[in-house]
Amino acid sequence: MTGQAGGAWQLRRANADDVPAIMELERATFVTDAWSDATMMSEVTGSNGYYLVAIDSAGGDAIDGYAGLLAPRGSGEGDIQTIAVAPSARRRGLGRQLMLALIGEARKRGARDVFLEVRADNPGAQQLYRSLGFEGVGVRPRYYQPDGVDAIVMRLHVPEPETTIA
Fold first, then answer.
1. Where are the beta strands (DSSP E) in 58-111?
2. Long-range pairs, 5-9, Cβ under 8 A, ≥24
3. DSSP 3-state assignment of 8?
4. 30 φ, ψ (degrees, to nearest 5)
5. How many domains is the chain built from?
6. Residues 6+ apart with CB under 8 A from 124
7. Which is the most buried residue in 41, 85, 107, 113, by most CB within 10 A?
8. Quick one: DSSP state of residue 59?
9. Domain range holding 77?
């Protein structure tokens, strides 16, 4: 995957020190309904969460994207809590890379199904999720506030790992 400076993105586990940079991207991406700093800190450092940040390996330490999964081990389910990609890194496969990493982690934690909510007015994200195998299973009316935008609830039956013969 190519980053903004031409390098590949390095995904790594997010930590408390990343929260200020994550929140910059959060507030820029989700202008009217961004999470609070305290909520993001709780999610990133929580024992049942798995949050990743994407850094362009060509240099610098700017976060080009982040994504988070809530998947308690043994629950059989996971929930994609959030995902955001910086405008300069969009349409280059980073969202897909982050989603695939979260789906892989959900599988490791024993999740058979992964859920997410997506804004009804975000067809690009909906298409990405459908291309990964998610299907719409419901609508939460006026879920995103203060905008009053519906959330489309989507589910992925987590595929078994594929093995190939060398």
1. 63-70, 77-85
2. 5/56, 5/58, 5/59, 5/60, 6/58, 7/56, 7/57, 7/58, 7/59, 8/57, 9/54, 9/55, 9/56, 9/57, 9/64, 9/65, 9/89, 9/94, 9/97
3. coil
4. -110, 70
5. 1
6. none
7. 85
8. S
9. 9-157
**Average pLDDT of the chain, as a whole number:** 90
DSSP 3: -
76 falls within a domain = yes
How much is the average pLDDT of 25-34? 92
Catalytic positions: 117, 129
Q: With contact defined as beta carbons under 8 Å apart, do 48 and 42 qualify?
A: no
Q: Tell me, yes or no, whether 3 lies in a domain.
A: no
pLDDT tens-place string over residues 44-59: 999 999 999 999 877 6
CA separation for the pair 40, 42 (Å, rounded): 5
Q: What is the CATH number of the domain that holds 108?
A: 3.40.630.30
| Percent helix, strand and coil across the chain, each to the nearest 5 | 30, 35, 35
The verdict on residue 33 lying in a domain is: yes
> Which residue carries 């992964």 as its tokens?
114
pLDDT tens, residue by residue, 116-155 = 999 999 999 999 999 999 999 999 999 999 999 999 999 9
| pLDDT (0 to 100) of residue 1 | 40
